[in-house]
Amino acid sequence: MKKIYLLCIFIFMGLFFAKIERENLNIIVYLNNDGTAHVIEQNKYFIEGNHSITQYQSILRSFETKNDLAFWSTTIGKDAPTFHVDPGTGRSNVVIAPSDIYIYSIYSETARAYITVEYDIGIEKTENQSTGVFIIKQIKPRTNEYVLNTDAIRFEKNEYGDVFLPDNTGLEFILPNEIVLTAVRPFPASLEERNLPRYDVGSLRWENEVHLARFSIVFQKEDRLDEEMMNFFSLWEKKIVNMVTGPEGWAVVLICVIIIVSYIAIQNVKRKSGE
Fold it and tell me: Considering its fold, how many domains does the chain have in total?
């Protein structure tokens, strides 16, 4: 504890002299079929001055501090790593992985380093839809429509909800397999052809100070028959569990026991009558 306290004093004193600035940020959102997502945010930093380099290396030697985003925020300031994708549906499995310095120059006293933040994003389900990074609704049997939840993208927005992607920043969505892209705005440079619908889209990417006016991604995905059956039984399994563990669960269990006992009794009577 004493070592951490001394390290904090050392870093706070160094804030007046430290120079750790973000050079670029690359965000990749891996979307799963059920709407959950895995996010990787890679921050590349420019570090100037031997004092700043020593300060950064001191942080790396402390497990308690290097895995704390609040601490990085205090140390780096406005360019600190953070969560840029957050629909408010829960975050788990957070990993903060700062790299050691590289491209170190003794003469210019400069270096560079990466801080990577990975995390999973959950969903909230209602009877009609699932909400996460995308909002998912069933539009016909075995077919779901996915619509980007722009509230989940935590960059500057104007009063119309347009997203402003900062300079030296990349935002990429890795989409599930076998989808049909029906709408996207603005069209990313990663798509050479603008014909819609598209059946061959694996990812969508925007970068470098882009005004994402009326930002939207819409695609459809048809469940395979085996997936539909699994979802059906999974839904009924959850309903039964909720029913049994709910406030009236004892009554449900009692009714089931009565039905089973009655069935056995009827079968025994029929068997004796037959004899």
Answer: 2
